[in-house]
Amino acid sequence: MSKTVIVTGASKGIGATTAIHFAERGYNVVINYNNSYQSARLLTTSLKSRGFSVIQIKADVSNRMETDLLIKETIDKFGSIDILVNNAGISQIGLIDEIDDYDAQRIFDVNLKGVYNCCRSVTPYMVNQKYGRIINITSMWGQVGASCEVAYSASKAGVIGLTKALAKELAPSNITVNAISPGLIETSMNANVSIDDLNSFVEDIPLGRIGNTSDVANAVLFLANDSSDYITGQIIGVNGGYVV
Ligand code: NAP
């Protein structure tokens, strides 16, 4: 029987590419989105037209009732939930006193509470079936901190702490919990970064290029694979050597 994966924030960027990679490998895929209905619909339609098993479900991951429904609708449709990829995230660049309280709270609510909510909603199902793979997308800024991204860095550091704690808690139930920690990846999240800033950033990346969404998706697939059964509580960098 095919395994089922939920990818949160799969309407674009890293999440969309991850959803495509899972679909192409025969998984049942749930494309979660919040605002970008059209992008999610286009992706779902194009994957379905290729014969893949894909549905889209709207849910704001910062809202626990909505994450409960996301999990329930997935079980209703596919009968199980084997892999949860907590990818949904937002960012905002600015000095700490330039980001207003609402925006900072929203960053914490989506990036950290959103991961917590999805884990909280899915855990009863995974514990019951004694199998699960939870893969959280953090950021290298959660490891080393970024100036002008204090709330973002803190939220992603929180995801690292959550990953390690939950890995220990769920290991007896044969559920692994790991995180991928991307470096600079070419997506709309970085659309406002100037070409000059990007070029100077690239000079400091040992592998000499910005990452692409497949670089991250491939690492997610590696962790989802049964051959990674003995890996849990780990933070795997996909950053071209920028943070080692
Ligand atoms: P992106 O292109 O901006 O995509 C973000 C995705 O998150 C969208 O699909 C968006 O869906 C979804 N999302 C945002 N808020 C949501 C919410 N409340 N509920 C559900 N979905 C929500 O960004 P990306 O670069 O692919 O980022 C994906 C993840 O990688 C994020 O966690 C990000 O922090 C992390 N990351 C990115 C980079 C990078 O350089 N790009 C580096 C390190 C880590 P809607 O548009 O439908 O709301």
Write a structural description.
The chain is an alpha/beta fold and 244 residues long. It has one domain: Rossmann fold, CATH 3.40.50.720. The chain has 8 helices and 7 strands, in the order βαβαβαβαβααβααβ. It has a 7-stranded parallel beta sheet with strand order 3-2-1-4-5-6-7, with helices on both faces. Strand 2, helix 2 and strand 3 form a beta-alpha-beta unit. Helix 4 runs parallel beside helix 6. Bound molecules: NADP nicotinamide-adenine-dinucleotide phosphate.
Return residue spans where pLDDT drops below 50 for at least 5 consecutive residues: none
Architecture per CATH nomenclature, i.e. the level-2 architecture = 3-Layer(aba) Sandwich
What's the tally of helices?
A: 8
Characterize the quaternary organization of these chains.
Answer: single chain
Instruction: Specify the helix fraction band.
Output: 40-55%
Named once each, the bound ligands are: NADP nicotinamide-adenine-dinucleotide phosphate
Largest sheet: 7 strands, parallel
Structural class: alpha/beta
Shape: globular
